Amino acid sequence: MARAALTRLVEPGDATVGRWLRELGPVELWRALIGEAAPPLGAGPQRLAGCALRAADLDPAADLAAIARLGGAFVCPGDLDWPRQLDDLGDARPVGLWVRGRASLRLWALRSVAVVGARACTDYGARVATTLGAGLAERGFVVTSGAAHGVDGAAHRGALAAGGTTVAVLASGVDVPYPRGHAELIARIAEQGLILAELPPGAHPTRGRFVLRNRVIAALTRGTVVVEACYRSGSLVTARRARDLGRVVMGVPGPVTSALSAGVHELLRGEAVLVTDVADVTELVGQVGEEPPPERRGPVVARDALDPVTARVLEALSARGGNEVEEVARGSGTGRDEALRRLQELLALGFVNRQGDRWELNHAGGRRGGPRRGGP
């Protein structure tokens, strides 16, 4: 009850409050801030006066009843469902989390990846975010973002479209959809996933609360992917906080002419790893003990199976008119007998034809799909 009350009394991410909470405990801190006990060390009169004004209208029991009506709960540090990776925030960790949805937050956070980026994203950014959201969901990862316009919304929609799981971390109460244009999307996330907030039901967002919300996204997830971001984007704050917490930081490159890619490219010059698709992301954030993804290579052609000497003999043949054995031997750096033996091998494989003393490329290719022209 004391922690629920504190979420309405103090602002999220206040490390000073976190230190007081660690030293005094939630009940004693609540009493100290409302004047029923000695004030905590360092609490000035203005701060205590502000807390007193807020405390006059607080009703934590009503807030807890409201979250219960929404089908959710208030989760505190030490609860079975508390994601312990949030403890990495130290004194800036949340006092508690208001959670809307019935899934296990702790279990979902273990396989969660953040996909964040610009609100005014391009079609390219929206397409990449949607594809990443869907691909991560199909591979069993939970897609976490902030439910904002642009990249955030596209990532959530991708996960939902794939029938996967997604988490939205809001800078308002879980019952206050923001932005308002995403009310339907946030309602779908509440049904199919989870809505989280540090602020109690009914609370509205402010500019500062968006920035503080980003630290929760960074700490909650195994890694953060930035799709598009200008130099002053809040998603860069998320990425750098993730880096400081030891999480994987990833960036999707974009056109060098786009201001919305400039921030991502700056990350890629330093702390971020370049990723281009969901396979790159899962390789970096995949769990220990999982099978590594297969090595990605270009298409295999028939001549890839040839040993180096046979390949040199094949390359020594002219694309037009063919060659005699002596010319092939000279071009491939082999003896005449060796060149002849290799040519006969290539004939059997369907790479070449023989016309009297001359050997020609078979432009139709070998039995296993050989070259169509003489070049590599």
The global form is elongated
Spell the H/E element sequence.
HHHHHEEHEHEHEHEHEHEHEHHEHHEE
What's the rounded overall pLDDT mean? Answer: 89
CATH architecture call of the largest domain: 3-Layer(aba) Sandwich
Strand content: 5-15%
Helical residues, percent:
40-55%
Distance between the termini: 73 Å
**Count of distinct structural domains:** 3
Q: What's the count of strands?
A: 12
What name does CATH use for the topology of the largest domain? Rossmann fold
The number of distinct helices, counting runs of at least 4 residues, comes to 16
Biggest sheet overview: 9 strands, mixed
Low-confidence stretches: 367-376
The top-level CATH class of the largest domain is Alpha Beta
Structural class: alpha/beta
Radius of gyration: 31 Å
Which strand order spans the largest sheet, edge to edge or round the barrel? 1-2-6-5-4-3-7-8-9
Short account of what is shown:
The protein is an alpha/beta fold. It is built from 16 helices and twelve strands.
List the keywords.
alpha/beta; 12 strands; Rossmann fold; elongated; 3 domains; Arc Repressor Mutant, subunit A; disordered C terminus; 16 helices
Description:
It is a single chain. This protein is α/β, with parallel strands linked by helices. It folds into 3 domains: 1-58; 60-285, Rossmann fold (3-Layer(aba) Sandwich); 302-361, Winged helix-like DNA-binding domain superfamily/Winged helix DNA-binding domain (Arc Repressor Mutant, subunit A). Helices cover 43% and strands 12% of the residues. The protein is built from 16 helices and 12 strands. The strands form 2 sheets. A 9-stranded mixed β-sheet has the order 1-2-6-5-4-3-7-8-9, sandwiched between helices. The chain has a 3-stranded antiparallel β-sheet with strand order 10-12-11. Helix 11 (234-244) links the parallel strand 7 (223-226) and strand 8 (248-251). Helix 1 packs across helix 5 (60-69) and helix 14 (308-315) packs across helix 15 (325-332). The protein is elongated. The protein starts with a helix and ends in a 15-residue tail after the last strand. The model is unreliable at 367-376 (pLDDT under 50).
